[in-house]
Amino acid sequence: MKRIALFLATNIAVLAVIAIIVNVLGLGRIADANGLNLGALLALSAVIGFTGSIISLLISKPMAKWQTGAQVITQPRDADERWLVDTVARLSQRAGIKTPEVAIYEGEPNAFATGAFKNSALVAVSTGLLSSMNHEEVEAVLAHEVAHIANGDMVTMTLIQGVVNTFVVFLSRVVGYLVDKQLNRNGDGQGIGYFVTSIVCQIVFGILASMIVAWFSRHREFRADAGAARYMGQPNSMISALATLGRVDPGELPKSIQAAGISDRPAMMDLFSTHPPIEKRIAALQEFRG
Which fold would CATH assign to domain 70-155+216-289? Predict the structure, then answer.
């Protein structure tokens, strides 16, 4: 529950900071003498909703390296590093994308892919994952991450987040305006009632929006598992890798790349989980095999 609270607080804080800047610059007026200007409000909401998401996407790769301490393999130092680079290159060719950077970081068994563009991405694996899996299982995990990149999941998640943020800002301000007009019928709908109500609604709608984003994140994990099975030519390796992940603690990735990991600790409430249960992912792959 602590992770959920932190995630929600971070998103709400970003939206709030952008909203404050917009208002300080005098761009936050949503009503005029004719009443609520829905067109202007929607445009304002889109600016607030997408700005943070797009910035996060553009800096996702350097931030991931910094937060995890991931070291990009530029010149393989041993046979294992050479195998990692060659394997990612082979899988990327099958997926039809440019080979992403390959990195290793210290940590519990996990892996992630990130980056703003398909042909300029990063795949990173932890030392814990490399030590707990055989080559076939590691290759399946790498195929899963390459599938995320080939599917454009990072960009799609950014768009989804931007859209839900836009509606959170839009609806919270509409409700705030209506409440303020009821409290002060002679006012312009942007008094103290507007500000208090819009903040409360932004928190409530933000919680609901995070459920939508989490649902899509779970859905894309199934797609990436299926993509890994296609690149490997069979689902057994991915099933074996998931079974191994189910027996270990995946650790905790930084919040900005948590959804990008191969697995995650289950959230207290399933609606907020970024990853489906391992058992469901294995069952989906078994159906894929059938």
Answer: Zincin-like (3.30.2010)
